[in-house]
Amino acid sequence: MAGEIRAGERRQRRGEDPERQFQWVVPAGRKASIYEDLTLDTQPSVHRFLKSGYHCSFADGRGTWDDASTALDVVTWSAFRDPNELWERPYYQQGAQCEREIDAAVESARSQGLYADVDPDWVAFLRRDGQVPAFVEHGIWAIATRRSRAALSDALTHGIVLYAAIKQRQAQALVIEGMDLDDAFGDVTIEAARERWLREPAWQDARRLVERMGTIRDWGELIVVAGLVVEPLLGVLLRRELLLRGALRAADPVTPAIARNAQREGAWWQDFAVAFARFAVQDPEHGAANRVLVDGWLEAWTPETLAAVDALEPILDGAPGTSFADARAAVVADQRELVAAATLDPARPAVVA
Amino acid sequence: MATQQTRRRSVTKTHERIAQLGWRHDYHQPVPIYETRYVFPEKAKDPMKQVMREYLPMQLEKDDRVYGGFDAALRAGMPTKADERWLQVMKPLVLILVYAEGAAGRCMSVVMDVVPNEELLNGYHVQFVDEVRHIGMQMNLARWYAKHTPDPAGWHRGQEYMAENMFTRAGINMFSHSFVGDPIAAGFTMMTVIETAFTNVAFVALPDVATRNGDFIQATTYSSVQSDEARHISNGYATMLTVLQKDENIPLIQHDLQQAWWIVHAFVDPFVGTIMEYFSSDRSDNESYLTKWDRWIRDDWYRSYVEQLGKMGVTVPPDMFERARERLVAGLHHKTAPLAFATWPLQFWKFSPLTEKDFDWFEAQYPGWYDEYGATWEAYSALTDPEEGALLLGGLLDGAPPFCWTCMLACVLDDDMCHRTCTDAHGHERTRFYCSPECKWLDETNPGRYTGDRNFFDKHHGKALSEVIVELGLLRADGRTLIGQPHLRKDQMWTIDHIRDCDFEIRSPNITQARVLGLPDGNWHDPDDPHGAVMGDGNGFQPVTLYGGGRGRNGDGRVVSTPEDLAAAAVGSTPWVKL
Q1: Is residue B247 situated within a structural domain?
Q2: Residue among A244, A282, A241 nearest A72 (CA)
Q3: Which reaction is the catalytic activity of this chain (chain A) (predicted)?
Q4: What are the tens digits of pLDDT across the range B77-101?
Q5: Which of B129, B145, B454 to probe by mutation at the A interface, max A CB count within 10 Å?
């Protein structure tokens, strides 16, 4: 709490009218951003200003929010910030822009006759597997949105909710692309994609992984697993290495707009997850214990995620212009960098490919 | 350059495809972290069919209009033209509504954790994103008021004050019901009662009052919020239709809907009724809060929605709805308002004495109002000058009603007030007061739900008022002048020295009333607890039923606490006990 007092005094020294500032906001920088003003302490906490405790509790003794909802512990969750400061307005601006770009790409493909230039083998791939990654996105969405409520600060809750919203947008964009491809080429159905997701052996390890994510009870584990393991390895493999690179080589005018936007959104989430992991493992009181936990989660999830990646070899090699070996090497290298950026040890055996 | 209009995709067909993204898990089953007593049918129907490609541009357009409105309001000089009495009460109102939005979003998350029907999940999640939008817009409104309105004091530490304010913490308590406990019961609280019944009052009627008081940016913001509520109401209806498919859910629905109704009424009606009628300077509206309530709550919600559920097998006795209206007629918010005004030194906004014009309006809307309340308001006006050296609170607090354990507002209706004796975790007998038998019923039937240091004045009992004001940080930047003031003038502002001169000691009405009535200790504050609460439920749980007799399992007119028995009581097979 000493930090808050200092923050208020600092503003006063600058000659700002202290009663025109949100003094409860402890800015990460010199001055509170609009993201901080509109987000912080919108979720009350007994560790902040609810000095009388939670007034509404579960019958089993859990309070309105429960410190045990994550095994991680920090001095104060309220100090966490999304490094990219996403709040509702930029979220809608960016999301709407994604959809506009995709729609524009579709209209351009139709009006300029660009669909005719697409590699027929790529069309066959899209017909077969182009919509299957939507099931991955949808599955992650389902668990992310369920775990958002338990998170222990507003900045964390909002981050998880917006991540879920982004996953749902990405899943739907792939399904809608399937409808557009159906118009252009015929025989592109969600039923066929669903069958592939449910039955095709190459997709089963990915399905098993996504279903396992649905068993995560700890929202902190969810951020680490989704942000530092599943997304950078499996998500990037599908979005960048398969859909984006493959589509660019195949003269596909639409899929790159979908995948590029998804990757841009994915970069936001990776930054969020890296910041979160750093925040936890560098906590002055609980950092060491958190590091053991986070390392344990990486070890528990990386092998199965890599197995899901490896199982997709026939899918990537079956798509024209993509190389599974190159793709795998790229995502593994990038993920190692990401783990290192989170100040975790990328050389741990489980993380090494 | 050739242009082509975007080809419109069928929303229904798009949604049909998107709905196939869910699948039955084979390798790992989802693990919920919340539990429900409800069972679910195989099929459900999402009536909204929200697709992100349509949703995102639509919301962006609405955002652009709202945020553009802030600039327009500034250019139009609204901060100085809007009525000051009204602008002051935006401080507690906007902040508690921000909490409400967060509660609504989190409600979606808990509901999604237990509802297996894939068809409904997309709609729930879109609502959570809406709620993030509402938080952003309303905090932006708070920020705009803080930066531009004439007297921003109170906004500057608004979230701190809100957490410990005697009225807004009651709001935190109520809105928390929508994401704590059984997720479906929580969903009914938020979607079926708060959003379907009360958002018309909060987000349509209040903006109307705002506009009449020259505050069109509040109206712009909340009207945009309300434009999302249709989808949220639809989510609630879809949830209701889904669980209604299973007969075993019906008693639970009847029970949970009544509990949800009561806790929402117990907070919203006195809180919003007071804001709407006692903080409006404009008296051009001839529709009272009660008239609006009849239109939107009784006619549009109870008669058009709840009663219609009877056709689907849900029989909700009318007693609770009639009781709520009777309480409004009996003066629920008129009796709450003087207490709010008398406690002005403990609030983070300023108050304005009622004028002759106000008296005329109240008398016209509620004949007999002046005879009952006029003297109190005259006394309030007479004591706004610090030179008088007297506080209305001094005369009121000794005889003030205790605060209700369940809804945390004052037990202002004598005939409704009741109490019970509970034994705390240390074997010490204590008294809990309730504003109504229904609030008592809520506490008795939900052991462990109502926690924390609940009676506002208990922890301040015996302290000087000036000490409490300093402790709560309710001073302006000069370190002397109180944030709360009994008037809107820039002169004759009360300082902490004026309060000290009054030499007024806080006495908790809960402690005082228990003593006067010869009841066990009314104090529920424990200074040794980290949150000041007497720990452990230990509440001598003896659930009772309401309305109309009954035998109960033990033949004593009471039912035991199993969901089956509560459900049986709710459906009428165990008649209610008229208390």
Answers
A1: yes
A2: A282
A3: propane + NADH + O2 + H(+) = propan-2-ol + NAD(+) + H2O
A4: 999 999 999 999 999 999 999 999 9
A5: B129
Residues of B in contact with A190 (CB under 8 A): 17, 20-21
Number of compact structural domains in chain B: 1
Query: What is the rounded distance in angstroms from the CA atom of residue A315 to the CA atom of residue B267?
Result: 58
Residue B562 contacts A, CB cutoff 8 Å: no
- Nearest CB among B27, B162, B408 relative to A211 is that of B27
- Those residues with Cβ within 8 angstroms of residue A243's Cβ, 6 or more apart along the chain or in another chain: A130, A133, A255, A258, A259
Residue type, B95: L
CATH number, position B374: 1.10.620.20
> At A5, is the pLDDT very low, low, confident or very high (cuts 50, 70, 90)?
very low
**Domain with B383 in it:** 49-396
Is pLDDT larger for residue B201 or for residue B239? B239
Compare A32 and B561 and report the one with higher pLDDT. A32
pLDDT digits (tens, 9 = 90+) for A312-323: 999 999 999 899
Per-residue DSSP letter, A52: T
Q: Which residue is listed with tokens 């600039």?
A: B71
Predicted confidence (pLDDT) at residue A3 exceeds the cutoff of 60: no
Size of interface A-B (CB pairs under 8 A): 294
All residues of chain A having their beta carbon less than 8 Å from the beta carbon of residue B133 are 88, 92
Residue A321 to chain B, least CA–CA distance (Å): 28
Which chain B positions have a beta carbon within 8 Å of A168's beta carbon? 52, 122, 125
Task: Name the nearest CA neighbour of A168 among A194, A145, A196, A193.
Answer: A145
B434's enclosing H/E stretch is strand B429-434
CA atoms lying within 13 Å on the CB side of residue B499: 28
Contacts of B122 in chain A (CB under 8 A): 168
Task: Give the model's confidence band at A8: pLDDT under 50 very low, under 70 low, under 90 confident, else very high.
Answer: low
Question: Is residue B413 assigned to a domain?
Answer: no
List, as ranges, residues 116-135 from A with C-beta within 8 Å of B.
134-135
**Rounded mean pLDDT of B551-563?**
37
pLDDT computed for residue A10 by the predictor: 56
Could you say which of A37, A145, A157 has the minimum Cβ distance to residue B125? A145
> Cβ of A20 and B533 within 8 Å?
no
- Give the type of residue at A86: L
Kindly state whether residue B236 falls inside one of the protein's structural domains. yes
Cα gap A353→B391, rounded to integer Å:
74
Is residue B6 situated within a structural domain?
Answer: no
User: Where does residue B104 rank: exposed (0-12), middle (13-18), buried (19+ CB within 10 A)?
Assistant: buried
pLDDT digits (tens, 9 = 90+) for B121-141: 999 999 999 999 999 999 999
Closest Cα in chain A, distance from residue B437 (Å): 19
What interface predicted TM-score (ipTM) does this complex get?
A: 0.94
State the residue for tokens 């006006």.
Answer: B381
Alpha helices in B115-205 (DSSP H): 118-148, 158-164, 168-176, 183-187, 199-200
Residues 266 to 285 of A: which have CB under 8 A from any B CB?
none
Contacts of B449 in chain A (CB under 8 A): 56-59
Q: Pick the residue from chain B with its C-alpha nearest to A190.
A: B17
For the purposes of burial, counting CB atoms within 10 Å of the CB of B304, is it exposed (0-12), middle (13-18) or buried (19 or more)?
exposed
Mean pLDDT to the nearest integer, B209-236? 94
pLDDT in tens, B283-328: 999 999 999 999 999 999 999 999 999 999 998 888 999 999 999 9
Cβ distance A138 to B21 less than 8 Å, yes or no, reads yes
Domains of chain A: 1-34 (no CATH), 89-341 (1.10.620.20)
The CA distance from A316 to A125, in Å, is: 10
Q: Give contacts of B 390-419 with A, CB under 8 A.
A: 408
CA of A310 vs chain B CAs: smallest distance (Å): 18
Helix, strand, or coil here: B450? strand
Q: How far apart are CA B100 and CA B105, in angstroms?
A: 9
